[in-house]
């Protein structure tokens, strides 16, 4: 793997923030293993403004020492690195999924702090083949069988996987030629894990890897076609309110797009059941958290005049949390405060009945009270002192404090359909 080939791959995955001159860095998730270390090595030669993020799960005695060793190796390459230590993870049921969630949460938070909008991940061709086998066994639908996209979007980041067509042997060869060593994680060979068992099988069958990659690529192309079609539907008939709900100008007719919007309104990680959402599109009707279709989403579908509204379900909203710069409430809203804002004793939570915080009962809101109850508010001693998304502030010390939707939460869900996969 040479610099020219890597640069050509990255050019096809742009656009990129300009390199240097005070512009944000491109982040790289680095475990210390050969794949992610090779990605960091190549990325550091592709551009100057990069930053490595090393996650220490703390699940093995050697993990902390390996993280520091990896940081030192990156420093010798001129790549600044930050170690992110995860607290509270314990071995047990669902360990892989819990560790993955904690890892991505830590990476997202670190990128948010640093102003990073692009995060490179080291998944390679065999990882893609393993994913295809796992999703086949789980009877995944068409989207799932498209496996990992070269570019995908989260609430904060563009996740970019430049190595999906590169074999791991090629990456190790690149490191050897550069005289670089890497960390070998013994858990990767633990046959008790499904992915490790599949890895051993695929290592002995290179043609199978090629077939599985080709299937994933074909499914990915089909997913992009569906994405483009749904982007048109979203652009034509969807309005997003700053308060976090969505208005549909027509009956929901596209189950896949509706599922993504439901996930966005609820701030959840996963899509609601496809069959249930399809049934809702076939027969649109008011449904709430108590309805079987939306139990897993924490969202509600309500009729408002000629429109349908997708609303956050009140009973599922997060409890108030302490207000702090950069905090995220309910998985959807990020707080930002000007210098000098006094956040002591202030929390972020649901606004509740609008009659308690509207400046005048004579004021006519353009949205129903059911929607306004779910907007994020600034609270002191349980009382609403500000509702930034509605332009309301009852406390001069909180002037300029904002609560804005995370980019991928609702406001840019349509962007996920444009060239994302």
TrEMBL record:
It is found in: Cytoplasm. Residues 26-200 form the tRNA(Ile)-lysidine/2-thiocytidine synthase N-terminal domain. SUPFAM superfamilies: Adenine nucleotide alpha hydrolases-like. GO terms for molecular function: ATP binding; tRNA(Ile)-lysidine synthase activity. Its main location: cytoplasm. GO terms for cellular component: cytoplasm. It catalyses: cytidine(34) in tRNA(Ile2) + L-lysine + ATP = lysidine(34) in tRNA(Ile2) + AMP + diphosphate + H(+). It comes from the Bacteria. It holds the Pfam family ATP_bind_3. The keyword Ligase applies. The N-terminal region contains the highly conserved SGGXDS motif, predicted to be a P-loop motif involved in ATP binding. Belongs to the tRNA(Ile)-lysidine synthase family. Ligates lysine onto the cytidine present at position 34 of the AUA codon-specific tRNA(Ile) that contains the anticodon CAU, in an ATP-dependent manner. Cytidine is converted to lysidine, thus changing the amino acid specificity of the tRNA from methionine to isoleucine. This is tRNA(Ile)-lysidine synthase. ATP binds at residues 31-36. The gene is tilS. It comes from Gluconacetobacter aggeris. The keyword Ion transport does not apply. One of its GO terms (biological process) is tRNA modification. Keywords: ATP-binding, Cytoplasm, Ligase, Nucleotide-binding, tRNA processing. Its EC number is 6.3.4.19.
